[in-house]
Task: inverse folding
């Protein structure tokens, strides 16, 4: 039977989902509360992992080991790296990679974890297609596209850094957990997708825009996740 792990880094990214959970039970592990129950008819575990790559990776491993999840969905917000993605729009992952892994000195590509043989962690095509299709239904006024998530332990709020993430990694959005979740899911052979609503443009305006738009953006992403879990 399917059991879907749903990860958000921050409370506002998961709070709406938790209020809709029935038959809920909570297990605390590594400082994280894992809320197990039924969401829109699906068996799920909802968890706020905290910010950054280490929190996200630990969380995926616990979802795999303790809860034996069959799928992982990461919901949340991100900074846009693509002129086609405005604040409020949604990016669904085709793949994810790290922008702060650099072993280029030994011939690896920027972002490549040495000895893995590739740098992009591919999202599950079925989950990505389902997310896209569901988005049209739940958020008909919202523009959604499939693309690349680039992740690192940095809030991107500088035009020059943003330009580097576009030229070196061809990223469509920047955030701080997705690639780590993708990496953990890959190692545990669990299909995953990352769904991120755009809260800012990851440039010099990000510091102003992020606090203004994060809550609304997080709601868009969560609404999509609620609807889609019922169809997995
Ligand atoms: N999450 C939302 N906006 C972000 C940004 N600009 N950089 C990193 N993570 C983010």
Result:
């Amino acid at each position: 039977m399917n059991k879907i792990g749903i990860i958000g880094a921050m409370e506002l990214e998961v709070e709406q989902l938790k209020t809709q959970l029935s038959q809920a039970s909570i297990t605390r592990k590594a400082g994280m509360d894992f809320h197990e129950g039924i969401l829109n008819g699906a068996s799920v575990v909802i968890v706020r992992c905290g910010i950054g790559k280490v929190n996200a990776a630990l969380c995926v491993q616990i979802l795999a080991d303790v809860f034996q999840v069959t799928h992982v969905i990461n919901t949340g917000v991100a900074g846009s790296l693509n002129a086609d993605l405005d604040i409020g729009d949604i990016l669904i992952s085709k793949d994810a990679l790290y922008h702060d892994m650099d072993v280029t000195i030994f011939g690896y590509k920027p972002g490549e974890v040495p000895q893995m043989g590739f740098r992009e962690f591919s999202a599950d095509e079925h989950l990505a297609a389902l997310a896209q299709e569901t988005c049209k239904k739940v958020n008909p006024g919202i523009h959604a596209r499939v693309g690349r998530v680039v992740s690192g332990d940095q809030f991107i709020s500088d035009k020059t850094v943003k330009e580097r993430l576009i030229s070196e990694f061809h990223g469509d959005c920047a955030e701080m957990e997705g690639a780590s979740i993708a990496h953990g899911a890959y190692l545990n052979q669990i299909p995953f997708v990352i769904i991120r609503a755009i809260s800012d443009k990851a440039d010099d305006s990000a510091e102003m825009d992020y606090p203004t738009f994060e809550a609304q953006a997080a709601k868009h992403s969560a609404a999509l996740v609620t609807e889609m879990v019922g169809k997995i």
Notes: The longest helix spans residues 206-229. The chain has a mean pLDDT of 96. The pocket of adenine is lined by residues 77-79, 155-157, 174-176, 199-200, 202, 206, 210 (CB under 6 Å). The first strand starts at residue 4 and ends at 8.
